[in-house]
Amino acid sequence: MVNSVQKAGASPAQWSSRFAFIMAAVGSAVGLGNIWKFPYITGENGGGAFVLVYLGCIAIIGIPIMMAEVMLGRRGGKSPIGTMQVLSRAEGRSRGWVGIGILATLASFLILSFYSVIAGWTMPYIMSAASGELSNISAETSGALFEGLLASPGQLLLWHSVFMGLTVLVSAGGVRHGLERAVTKLMPALFVLLLILVGYATTTGHFGEAVSFLFRPDFSSLTAEAVLVALGHAFFTLSLASGAMMAYGAYLNKKVSIVRTSFTVAILDTCVAMLAGLAIFPVVFAHGLAAGEGPGLIFVTLPVAFGQMPGGSFFALLFFVLLLFAAWSSSISMLESLVSHLHERGISRVKAAIGGGLVAWLIGITTLLSLNVWSDFAPLSMFERFEGKTLFDLYDYFTANIMMPLCAFLTAVFAGWVMKPEHSAAELGQRWHGVWYAVMRYFTPIAVLIVFYTNLG
Ligand code: TRP
Fold first, then answer.
1. In whole angstroms, what is the distance from residue 162 CA to residue 173 CA?
2. Ligand 1 pocket mutation, candidates 26, 28, 167, criterion most atoms within 8 A of CB
3. Could you tell me if the CB of 27 is within 6 A of ligand 1?
4. Is 333's C-beta closer than 6 angstroms to any atom of ligand 1?
5. Which pLDDT belongs to residue 3?
């Protein structure tokens, strides 16, 4: 539907309402990043001080960049690559700025490859919850269950394939109808469920400990690396610097306020991350599990919590289903930059989605193997920085710590210095434009550069 309208050259496809855009953008933003990654990197980086830096990154770097990306997307009206072609021409500048679109598309594509593997983990948990296997599970058994999953390439491959298939399915069909309809129901449901889990967490007797872990900063434990991780995660969790918001912005109605909408999306996304932290850490502390457990954190701890709740198997089932949907609505947005671009070049959405999905699936297999068979394969170990990092670690590192900051930097320079202020003001509205413009010119690029440089230096 969307495609035929675009093909016919009529008015471009649009979200049906501001609410639909918000839900799609929140669907993209809220995903494994909030519920899986945020708690575990917070645990690894010592808690409070890291959370504060992360919140700061969202507020002063993430939100202005989100506005910039949605603004660029709406103005260009195309895929990120197409949009950058249109805009660099419209501003009479070098075509080299298309590089932003290319970098963004590559980053989100690479992220999709490993995101799918992790999202796949939710499915065996859905099965275990449904079979009652999780009831009264001990922390030890839960840990063993998770390790068993990671040690099995066959199982991982199965679920990775199913998840990638689901992503391709929606992407092939066009974003608006399938996705819009799904996210407007699922995102509110996820929110309610998280609130219930937080409610349960207050009964563990360790809620206060979790609150102080999350919100009482101890700056002595903060490292430069942690600041970069926080910045990288701010981009990741808001789906920035990777084309998703640009691609979705292209479908946004001209009348909608980009400033207000971006705030709403960022605030909802942040709330979900905080709720996830508040749901998970009390359980971690109550069972004497390690906060710095790593990527297994929620998969090991939550089954323990659910296992002891009355009706826990049901809640566990619901939780992992919703996590799957949250990841699904994110992965679709990762494929969108590429699919919408290929579609502009005359390839059907179906073919573009299948082709893109297939390549991402193949790359994903290398991630999957680095969890078991290739767990000792650290190809860049000759560099101290990359010592012991598996392929999966490297993909994660390069996208979150290098490609996304770089892409965000270039986006800020384009929006703040290359694009004429009249043009950005026409999209963002006069009222907020001045502040945004100053931030975009002087603050954002410099802040990103400093963090980047400190870490590389
Ligand atoms: N924001 C999502 C999450 O937190 C991940 C995501 C969706 C994403 N789209 C993206 C990350 C594009 C990078 C690029 O799980």
1. 17
2. 28
3. no
4. yes
5. 40
CA distance 217 to 50: 7
- Please write the tens of the pLDDT for every residue from 117-176: 999 999 999 999 999 888 889 889 999 999 999 999 999 999 999 999 999 998 888 766
CA-closest residue to ligand 1 atom 8: 239
Q: Which is the closest atom of ligand 1 to the Cα of 28?
A: 7
- Give 330 Cα–ligand 1 centroid separation in angstroms: 6
Cα–Cα–Cα angle for 441, 442, 446, rounded to 5 degrees: 110
H or E stretch covering 30: none
Residue pair 34/327 in contact by the 8 Å Cβ criterion: no
Tell me, using a 6 A CB cutoff, whether residue 111 lines ligand 1.
yes
Separation of alpha carbons 161 and 243, rounded Å? 24
Question: Quick check: 407 and 100 in contact, CB under 8 A?
Answer: yes
Q: What is the pLDDT of residue 294?
A: 83
User: What's the 8 CA to ligand 1 centre distance in angstroms?
Assistant: 31
Q: How far is the CA of 443 from the centre of ligand 1 (A)?
A: 24
Question: H-helix or E-strand containing 275?
Answer: helix 258-286
Select from 11, 43, 32, 28 the least CA-distant residue to 280: 43
Q: What percent of the chain has pLDDT over 90?
A: 63
Q: How far apart are CA 415 and CA 358, in angstroms?
A: 34
Of 26, 110, 111, which is best to mutate to test ligand 1, by the most ligand atoms within 8 angstroms of its C-beta? 111
First to last CA, the chain: 50
The two tokens of residue 131 are 């079979």
Distance in Å, CA 126 to ligand 1 centroid: 22
Residue 323 CB–ligand 1 contact under 6 Å:
no
**Phi first, then psi: what are they for 277, rounded to 5°?**
-60, -45
Query: Which residue, by CA, sits nearest to atom 6 of ligand 1?
Result: 239
State the number of CA atoms in the 13 A half-sphere of 326 facing the CB: 29
CA–centroid distance, 342 to ligand 1, in Å, is 20
Cβ-proximal residues to 355 (8 Å cutoff; 6+ apart), any chain: 342, 347
φ and ψ at residue 91, rounded to 5 degrees: -90, 0
**Residue 453 clears pLDDT 70, i.e. is over it:** yes
* Greatest distance between any 2 Cα atoms in the chain: 65
